[in-house]
Amino acid sequence: MNKFFQLLKVQMMNYWLQGNAKTIRSQLLRSVPLALFILGIASFYAAMLFQGANAFVYPYLIFLAASIVMAISFFTTLSTAQATFFEFKDYDLLISLPVNKKWISFSKFLSAMVNQWIISWVVLIPVFVVCIVHYSGSFQFAVFYLLGMLLLPAVPVSLGILIALAFRWITAGTRFENLLKNILNVALVIFIIVINFSQNFGMSGRSSGSISTVRKIGPGLVNQWFFTPANWFAFGTVLKDSMQLFYLLLVAVISLGIVVTVYLKLFDRIHHRSAVTYHVKNFKLTKAKGGSQVIILVKREFKTLFSNFAASLNIFMMPLMGILAGVTICYFTPQFLVNFLISDGETILLPIIYFLTIFSGMPIYSSSAINIEGTRFWIIRSLPISERKFLMVKHFVGLFMSIIGPMVCLILCSIHFKFDASLFFTGFILVISLVVAINSFALLMNLLLPKMIYDSPELAIKKGGIGSVLGGVVPYLGSIILFVSFMKSMEDSISNKVTLMLCLAVIVAIMALVLEVILWVYGPKKIRKLG
């Protein structure tokens, strides 16, 4: 048993710190950036308070933020369960340990479960506190909520394992596996979105959502959309009979038991069956000439994003978060908040877009999925294309995917709230400069502090991908600190809020320009030598 706990410790460290190039995007999204997401929300509240926003907006936004984070957390956990349970190199390494193979499989399952619990508790405990303090939640609500925090995080892990087992067994590890998983994952995402929009938005939108109606939890508010995370984890507060709760617990335990049993029984058989057909495809660039090589790389990069959905689900969830935020603000906002936005939109909408750009951007993609570490670096060096062009393609894809969400949100808000030209131009500059600065810094950190290039495996483990971590974390934290410090220091000098945000956008644009010059004028090779 002691060996099992040691193995579990290794799995947890791998889950948080030493994920390989294929999975570290999802791992980093779960760890430090998600914690910083909560910090960013808190900073956003502070900025709103500093701007004189209505205090009743804060609990409302907590529910909205928790819904978004939990949805991302659930689907990235599901995708990671699909992507990491059949890592061949990882499995072969673990199989050499003096531990039963079933315990190795079970440790993977348990580590994913524990990490999902951590994320859920970090997000849901503040929601629980807000429900109790602001809305006078009942004792029954508190009990169901706490039980939900224990039970429901098992859902994405169990689903991910079952999906991974099913499609690996059906396809035997061929190229059709990812395609089938993509279709199912997209269907799940669409299903959850449709259910939430159809069931939980019935009393919001343009209804008379006054301040008094959100003062307490009552029968008429069970389906209010901003209570979505609370209802998820309190089972809608509809369970009245204690025997119903007992049956629910019994079903959850039996379901987990079935999942674990099936997983332990079939893992090795499925793994060895699929290993026979496992192969790695290289880029077909040898016949390409001139600029067509870059075009092929761009097509290949987007094809990889769409075909390897299980490992990069968050790359699509980030733009989706921005799009949903824009749709929510424009079409599903309670009337009292709409009135506030219309009357004081210049004050609050640009900060909203600023923070939305930060948290829907993808420094994790540029930093960790850049494919310049480990064995993939040697594949790059064998290609008939320069490393500079290869990294430019990666950088372009990261910028393109990062801009989609906040730009759609900006356009929707501009149309709905009738932004004037100066307000839209300020938001446009803000989005572009932030995205470029964040992704450029992430790539720079990865080049300075790579994970495995020229290192022995022991040194690579000790370094733990520090460049990827810094590239994913520093842009988030730095952007928050920059916003708060700049607004505090310049509020007395510049009274116009749009002008103030434009000055901030110019500062970020200068930083982005400097980073781009360092990357492409000084060059990736010279930067790597500095590290």
UniProtKB/TrEMBL annotation:
Which residue ranges does UniProt annotate as crossing the membrane? Answer: 32-50, 56-78, 117-136, 142-167, 179-198, 245-264, 309-332, 352-372, 393-417, 423-444, 465-486, 498-522
Question: Which of UniProt's keywords are assigned here?
Answer: Membrane, Transmembrane, Transmembrane helix
Q: Which organism is it from?
A: Bulleidia extructa W1219
Give coiled-coil spans as residue ranges.
none
Q: What is the lineage of its organism?
A: Bacteria, Bacillati, Bacillota, Erysipelotrichia, Erysipelotrichales
Q: What is this protein called?
A: Uncharacterized protein
Q: Looking at the keywords, is Transmembrane present?
A: yes
